[in-house]
Structure formats: structure tokens, C-alpha cells
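Cross-posting from the modeling subforum.

Setting up a comparison between two proteins and wanted a second pair of eyes on the formatting. Protein 1 (sequence, then C-alpha cells):
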Amino acid sequence: MEKKYNSQMDGPIMNKEFWMNPPELNKPNSQDKLNSGHYLELIDRLHIVMCNLNDHCIQHPVAKLDKKISNSLNKALEEIWDAYQEVGKLDYKRNNL
């Protein structure tokens, strides 16, 4: 059995289950409203995340030398890229209909 990495940061922030199934606080509610700037804002934030993932993780020497880590990071980048594209499509549709 593979040993899991243990961090001093114990709690939900380092818990995969927390991130894959976030608590009800992260679910949409009737008070959530979208305005025209929200799509562009999310596109910008996704771009920042992609840049950070590339600059600080994909380009890290460990990731460059370990194919499994590199593949996982590149899959994450692809998923974020897909989300970036989807938000861009929604923004385009919203502004050009």
C-alpha cells in the first residue's frame, strides 16, 4: 500500500473528499446573481490558475523528471483549459445574442 503524504496542515483544506464533494456552503443558492462581469472575471481567474500551475508546478524539476506527476499536472491543466473555453463560450453567447 502506498504511503500517503502527511502534512502538518490537517483538516479539510488538505482533504481530497472535501474538494471533490464540497460542503453545502459552495452550492448555488437563491442569493447568487450573475452580472455581465462575472464571466470575464472567471476567465481571468482561470488564466491565473493555469499560469500558476504551469510556472510553479509543471515547470518544477520534480514534475519535469517524474512522468506520473507530469501527466497528472498536465491533465489538471487540460481540465482548467476546458473550463476556460466553456466560460468563454458562455460569455460570447451572453454578449452576442
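Protein 2 (same layout):
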Amino acid sequence: METQNYENREFIILNVSELNQIDFSQVLETSQETVRKSVDGTKTFVKWDNNMPSFVTSLTTKEGPYTYEEILEILQTPEWTDPDTSYTQIEGEEEFSEE
């Protein structure tokens, strides 16, 4: 399976309590209702291509930025993926697998 090139894509993780500070016109997610959340529902992430959005500097709970490869590893942890559920996409991006 071919993988797309996301070398300019970056991700940050943040607490859902800061979702109201996200300018969704600057990221690739569409709204607070469509973001993926951690298993316990306390964290989420947003992504963008090229330049970091201006609002990111004001976030107090941000982690990152991460590359595509780094976020894939993070999202495979129990904090983000319930062992009883299988995620195969990061909102529109096919996750590659070496099975």
C-alpha cells in the first residue's frame, strides 16, 4: 500500500478544555465535534500543513508539535486507542500498516 507524503504536516495534542481556542480555519479539522479524542475524552489533537497556526502559542496544554510518524506512534498507545477498537484512519489519512 502506498503512503502519502506528509513531511510538512504537523500535529499538536491539547486538552479538550482548550478546543474553544482553536481557529478551525487554520487547521485541517473542521470543528470541535469532529476531532478525535483520547480514550478518556480529555485530550485531542489538531493538524496543519507548513506554518504553525497563530493560535498555537496561546495554548497552555499543548504537546508537540509532532510529525506524522510520531503522531501515529502516539495514537497507537492505550491512551488513544481502546484495545477493543481498531482505528485505521487519522481523519482522512490512511494509516499504513506493515502486516
